[in-house]
Each structure stands twice: as structure tokens, then as C-alpha cells.
Amino acid sequence: MAVTELDTVVAQTATDKRRVKTTSKEVWTARWLLLPAVLFLILLTQIPFLTTVGYSTIRWNLLYPNDRGFTWFKNYGTALSSGDLWPSIVATVVITALAVVFSLLFGMIFALLLNRQFRGRAVARTLMITPFLIMPAASALIWKYSMFDTNIGILNWLSRTLHLPVISWSTEHPLLAVIIVLTWEFTPFMMLILLAGLQGQDTGILEAAQVDGAGPWRIFTWITLPHLRMYVEIGVLLGAVIIIQVFDPIAILTKGTGGTKTLAYLLYERAFIGLDVGQAAAYGVITVVLTIIVATIALRTLFKVFMAGGSR
Amino acid sequence: MTTATTTATPTSGRTEAQEIHFKSDRNAKIRMYLGLAALVIWGLAPFYWMVVTAFRDVGYTFDTTPWPTHVTLDNFTTAFSTDRGNHFGAALVHSVIIGVLTTAVALLVGVFASYALARLDFPGKYAVLGVILGASMFPGVALVSPLFQMFSNFGWLTGANYQALIIPNISFALPLTIYTLTAFLSEMPWELEESARIDGCTPGQAFRKIMLPLAAPGLFTTAILAFISSWNEFLLAAQFSTKSTQTVTVAIANFTGAQPHQEPYTAVMAAGTIVTVPLIIMVLIFQRAIVSGLTAGGVKG
Questions:
Q1: Cα distances (angstroms) measured from residue A279 to each of A60, A74, A75, A295, B150
Q2: Beta bridge partners of B73
Q3: Where are the domains of chain B?
Q4: For residues B223 and B231, what is the distance between their CA atoms, to the nearest angstrom?
Q5: Mean pLDDT, residues A78-98 taken together
Q6: Which of the listed residues A13, A47, A195, B8 has the most CB atoms within 10 Å of its CB?
Q7: Scanning every residue of chain A, which has its alpha carbon at the shortest distance from the alpha carbon of B184?
Q8: Residue A95: pLDDT band by 50, 70, 90 thresholds?
Q9: B65 to each of A152, A167, B212, B264, how far by Cα in Å?
Q10: Alpha carbon of A27 to those of A11, A33, B130: distances in Å?
Q11: pLDDT class for A186, splitting at 50, 70, 90?
Q12: Interatomic CA distance for residues B42 and B24, integer angstroms
């Protein structure tokens, strides 16, 4: 159904833009080439989503399989009044915002460092990327044990060596622990995007500014930062879209305790521990709506870049 | 004489300026290396500690000497042993099977789509791109529950039904594949293809014989990224995998130690070493390709 919708969109644009010089045969080739990918993606993301919307309007708990029926928006009402939704929206927003800001900040510092010429730059850059490519489940475990643990963690080894109190990070400061792990994971992501921006910078302008006597800080704030604006936007938006949905570190580090029960985790808990399909679906729809808001802005920004790059 | 004195002043002035410049240069260098040290510690400290713990005898788990002590390979044996109900070795095999099949399908479907996006000009191109990018941003967690119902109706959630994991993984890998490949393909010298067609090749032949070999590095990078995305998947695997399809992510998260009621520090760290260190080495070997792939996918232009 969605495919025909898309086809009509394509057809409409085709009639709108008669100036397109492509032959109709080529247009059909393009459609056939794209069909499998688009069909697959729609089948796997949109159909389950419509199912979710459907589930969200029925009363269905797997514990009571016989008590099943249509309830309109009662699941949303329960979600709003249960007292779980707001804390989890707050948790999602706090975790996403802080992780994005910190990883952007560190990513900027590392990108500026790696933008210089020095021996071993390629190796340094690669080592910097690994936290992003490593299995998130494994990195959550690595942090849980080798960093945060009260017995063997580095952080507590450091505080013992410096005679500071030993802190059980993932139980005493769960929110902070999750944010730290996410910042660690996403700093390389931000760094890569910003580094691409820095390397696209016109060196002539930088040299001219230097000749005119501008200091490094001035050059950074007046020339580099404005140039990086679009890259920062992309980094923030894409990072936010990914981090909103994040699940692994919460499941492994805190199990949603101590203000870390994000929407994604809450929904998982309702579906697979509470076994309440209807309720979970309502939370699912809410999560999707929240993501779509951020993603739409992200897509718009990305398109600007794609258009600028693709017009060549 | 006068010229000499007039030139002398600026020269000495310049050397002074050079001196200052040199000093600030040296300070900048020191700052840069300090920054780099911070960078390396930031990126590597958790891994370093993990490896050190992985090679340390279980009896000395709580010995927090910062360098390797009581080195042993026992933890790796524990990680692979099935006595405690861990099936780490089998899980590695399952993850590889799922990863390879996911990558193969995503690449096959992705090549066609990216060829159309990069090479052909057609109306509605941006609508398609929007659908693909939009799908990549769709929250996976919202799909778990409906897919679970659907797959359990199909009877896929028992036994060795790899497709229950491969199919959703493809939907995550496909957008990534398409936009990385599109970026690669739009940078290629397509004049070559045209000349091949003038020389009598069909479009398919021209693509297969001329362009595909040229695109090989791009395909390879994309394959690595697609494989990593499948290899790292945890949420769906935690719900959809059975004992005979359990992935590494799930196995490692559910690890139980050599002794009951004991946090399996050393064995988990050994398992962690096995799943992360090969990846780090691979990334180091193919770093140029991977960086260009990641950047091409994220920000093109």
C-alpha cells in the first residue's frame, strides 16, 4: 500500500518536472532497481509500526490471554496517568541531551587535535574510532567491570590510590554512569563528522586570517565555528536520533534504575517483563512520535548536505 | 651603511618575532602531545584494563596492579567452557552466520538501489532517499513487540530459525549500505562505463565488467560496516534468538562465572577481549577505507 503511495509521489513529480531529461526507460530501470530495497524497508519498519498502532488500541496482556478487546485510547490514558511516562520522558531527554552535548564537546577537541599534521595521526584517529564500532553490549560490560566496578574498576583504583572514597558508579550514580558510557561511545561519531567538516575548510582563508594577525582562538570562533555549524547540526541531530533509542547500556548497566528508565527501556519492560502488549504498544507509539520529531529536523538538515554534494 | 642599519633593525625584529613564534610553537606542540595522550587514554584505557584483567589468574581478580600480573590463559578456557551453561563458542559461530548472511543480502539489494540513486537521474529520487534515511532512524525498540508477535505466529522463535534475526538486521544494515554505497558510487569515473557501452557492452555488462571492479573498495568498506552493524545488534537478538541461534551480544551479557554466585569478572573480560580485539585490529588494518566509509555515509559533500 505504501509502495503505491510512493509510486504516485514519483509519478506526480514526474509530471511536475517535464524538464527532466531522463528517458522513461531509465526511469523504469531506476524504479526496478530501487523496488526491492524500498519494499523491504517499508515491510520491515512500517507494517510492524502500523501493527503497533493497532495494538495500542486494544486491551491485551499475555498473562490474561482471554481478556482481549478494543479499548480506544485507554492504553494512552493509562500511560499518561500511570506515573511512569513523565519520569521516563525526562530520563530520555536528560540522557540524550547530556550525552550529545558532552560527546560533541570532546569530539570537537579531538577533531581539532586530529586535524593537525603529525606522525601516527592515522593510528590515533583509528584508535579514537574504535569505541564507536565496538559492540555496545561489550562496551557497556567493559565499563561496568573494568571502569566502574568497586573491586577492580580503574576509577576506583584511582580513587583508592588517591585516598578518595570508593564509589559504586553504576548503583550510586546510575544516570551519570549511563551518560559517561554513551559519551564515550559517541565522541568518535561526533569527532568523525566534525573532522570531515574541518578538512573541508579552505586553508587559504585560515592563512589570510593568520597573516592579518588573528590568534588561534579568534580564528576558531570567527572562522572555524561558523564553518562547522552545519556539521555540528548534523552531529547533534543524528546523535540525538540514535541516543533516544538507546537500549544496551541501560539494560546492562542499570536495568532502568535510578532515573535511567528511558522510553525505550520502559517499553521493553512493559512488553517483555510486564507482557502487556497493548500498553507497550502505546509507549511504542509515543517513542516513535518523539523520534520522528527529532528525525524530521535531522532529515531536513541532511538533505541540505546531500543536495549540496549531489548537485555536482 | 644607512641601508645596512635600516635593514638590521627589521631583521633583529624578525628574529625576535621568530623567537616568540618558535616558543609558542613549542608550547603548542607540548599542548598537542598532551592532548594526544589524553586522546589515547580516553580511547584505550577501558580496553587496556579489560585485556589486563582477561589475562590475570582468577585467584588474583582483585589485584589491581595496572600492568599484567599472574598471566594465564585460563580465563579464555573458562569463557569457552560450557559447564556453566555459557555457549560462547557457539554464539560466535551464530553471530558470524547471521552477520555474513545479513551483509550479503544487504549488499546485493543495496548495490541496485545505490546504482539507481548515484547514477540515474529520475523524478522522486529524493522521496526514495527520504524513505531510506527515514527507515534508518526508525526506533528499533518500537518494532520488537510487533515483530515478536509476527515471528512467533510464523513459528520462527524456536530452533535454528536464523531468518528471525537476519531479516530485521537487514532492515538496519540496508539504509547504511545504501547511503555509504551511493556516496562511493557517485564519486566514480562513470565516463568509463559510457565508453564501454559505446564499444558495444550492454549496460549490465558495462557495470559488471568495468564499474564493479572499480567499486570493489567501496563495496568492501560497506560490507565491513554492514557486518559490524549486524554483529553489534543486541535488542532484537535478546528477544528473538533461541538457544541454537543465540548471538555473541546476548551470550556475553548473560555470562555466568566459573563459580556460582560470583561476578565472572575475568571470564567476561576474556570474552570481551575475544569480541573486541579482532575488531580493533581489523579497523587498524582497514582504517582508511573505514574512515572514508563512515564519513561518506554520515556527511557527504
A1: 8, 9, 5, 24, 18
A2: none
A3: 17-72, 85-254
A4: 12
A5: 85
A6: A195
A7: A310
A8: very high
A9: 10, 19, 52, 19
A10: 10, 10, 18
A11: very high
A12: 26
Which residue from A minimizes the CA distance to B43? A128
Contact status, residue A241 vs residue A218, Cβ threshold 8 Å = no
The domain defined by B85-254 folds into: MetI-like fold (1.10.3720)
**Taking the model in full, what pTM does it have?**
0.81
Cβ of B265 within 8 Å of Cβ of A145? The answer is yes
Whether A263 shows a pLDDT value over 60: the answer reads yes
DSSP state of B213: H
Strand, helix or coil for residue B212: helix
A85-260 — its CATH code? 1.10.3720.10
| Residues A133, B281: Cα–Cα separation, whole Å | 12
The number of angstroms, rounded, from the C-alpha of A300 to the middle of its chain's C-alpha atoms is: 16
Asked if B49 and A147 come within 8 Å (Cβ–Cβ), the reply is yes
Place of cell 544487504: B106
In angstroms, what CA-CA distances link B82 with A67, B14, B256? Answer: 42, 74, 10
Centroid of chain to Cα B131? 23
List the single residue in A48, A245, A271 with the smallest CB-CB distance to B150: A48
CB burial of residue A7 (10 Å; 0-12, 13-18, 19+): middle
B14, three cell numbers: 624578525
User: Tens digits of per-residue pLDDT, B108-131?
Assistant: 999 888 888 887 777 778 888 888
CA distance B134 to B136: 5
- How far, in Å, CA of B194 to CA of B214, rounded? 14
Q: Is the ipTM of this complex over 0.85?
A: no
Selection from A115, A191, A253, A111 nearest residue B253 by Cα: A253
Phi-psi category of A258—alpha, beta or left, where left has phi over 0 and alpha has psi -120 to 50? left
E strand or H helix that includes residue A226:
helix A225-244
| Whether B49 and A146 lie within 8 Å, measured CB to CB | yes
CB contact under 8 A, B137 and A277: no
Supply the Cα-derived Rg of chain A in whole angstroms.
24
